[in-house]
Sequence to fold (138 residues):
Amino acid sequence: MTKNVGIEQMMLKNRPQSIIWFERAFWFSFAAVLFDEVVALFSGGPTLGLSIFFEIAITVLLWHLIAVKAKDWARWLYIVLTTLSVVMTILAMIQDKSFFVHTPWSFVSILAGVIAAGFLFRIDAILWCAQSDSKEQS
Fold:
């Protein structure tokens, strides 16, 4: 157990630049989502209540698995979820032409999420996640 904690601390200190930039964009995206939810709450718009709790839990778990544990499957899960978010936003825009007038922070959040996902395709991020998988296999 102590050995794993030491390895995790060493990995945190030696994280690649792409992972650090991923975290910045990731947390900015998350902050934009929360801000959008707070604005909706105070403007009398629809809020999702308990789902916000699950959104926070899933977000923190995904961040931990990607940026701390370097899990490649979590990296791909984030990329898939971000892609679905973009597709759903495009469909919402087609349906409701005033979509971004009502939810500009949703657009900011999606844009930051796409930027964060882009950092996960850089070679140092790919190697970062691959090293975790190779440690598990040995």
Remarks:
- The two ends are 17 Å apart (CA to CA).
- The mean pLDDT is 82.
- The CA atoms of residues 108 and 133 lie 33 Å apart.
- The chain has seven helices and no strands.
